[in-house]
Design a protein that fits this description.
single chain; 78 residues; alpha/beta; three-stranded parallel β-sheet; 3 helices; 44% helix
Length: 78
């Protein structure tokens, strides 16, 4: 935040870490959410979904490698 105060988007490899980013942004006087810095996490946790619904975070996603591989293989076989 010190070297890039004009940041627009922050992505994180864990929703839990992104919760800390949100606190740091607020402490720096920046607004998380659609009107400020967009936050994107990973995990689709309850915290993330609540933050998205409240408009504080832009998004989150979840990876399911076993299921993706299994169903992908089933589609190829079919």
């Amino acid at each position: 935040l010190q070297s890039h105060p004009d940041v627009n988007v922050i992505t994180c490899v864990a929703d839990q870490a992104l919760a800390g980013v949100e606190v740091a942004l607020q402490g720096a006087g920046l607004t998380p959410g659609d009107d400020g810095v967009r936050l994107i996490g990973l995990g689709a946790t309850k915290t993330a979904l609540d933050a998205i619904r409240a408009g504080r975070w832009f998004g989150t996603y979840v990876e399911l490698p076993y299921e993706e591989g299994y169903y992908g293989g089933q589609n190829i076989i079919a």
